[in-house]
Design a protein that fits this description.
- Helix content is about 20%, strand content about 30%.
- The longest helix has 21 residues.
- By secondary structure, it is an alpha+beta fold.
């Protein structure tokens, strides 16, 4: 996938260089090496780029972060969220387990995640025009029959998340 994008990008650069060298007039002699006019070649490039499949592993707030590759089964997730929200943790909180919470955010501002009813929380700083990823793992010390993730964000922040129990948490320090 990245190779296709890179090839399309290089082709676009080559096309721009060819246009700059040949000039931008509409005279009949302006053609590319395959006999097409620069305009036809550019329209073809635009059409092929528009039909390209997006990278499924690219950071996004439109889809939940991929945590399955770490062996974590997602218990709760949310996408394209703005503002404040609460998501239940199915089955509650279990002592000795490690809760993994992956968050992607975009937009200038802060996003705070709290694990209720525990006092565990973390803050993520988000940037305008960039998707910022965060992964936190929190080892639970007490049982709670219910639990939830509480998200509080500033108005300009858009976010997505996925959370689950990590079967292979990092060693405690």
């Amino acid at each position: 996938m990245a190779t296709t994008r890179r090839s399309a990008h290089l082709l676009g650069c080559a096309l721009i260089a060819a246009l700059a060298t040949a000039g931008c007039d509409s005279a009949p002699h302006a053609t590319t090496s395959d006999g097409r006019s620069p305009r036809a070649a550019a329209e073809s490039l635009t059409a092929s780029t528009a039909n390209a499949t997006p990278d499924p592993y690219a950071l996004s707030v439109v889809s939940a972060p991929k945590i399955a590759s770490d062996g974590i089964t997602s218990l709760a997730s949310g996408t394209s969220a703005k503002g404040n929200a609460i998501y239940e943790i199915p089955g509650g909180i279990r002592a000795g387990k490690t809760l993994a919470i992956a968050v992607n955010c975009q937009g200038a501002g802060r996003l705070t995640v709290r694990v209720q009813p525990t006092k565990a929380s973390f803050l993520t700083l988000c940037e305008k025009g960039k998707v910022s990823p965060t992964l936190n793992e929190i080892q639970m010390s007490e049982n709670h029959s219910s639990g939830s993730l509480s998200f509080t964000s500033e108005p300009n922040v858009k976010w997505s998340f996925a959370a689950g129990w990590d079967p292979h948490p990092p060693a405690r320090r």
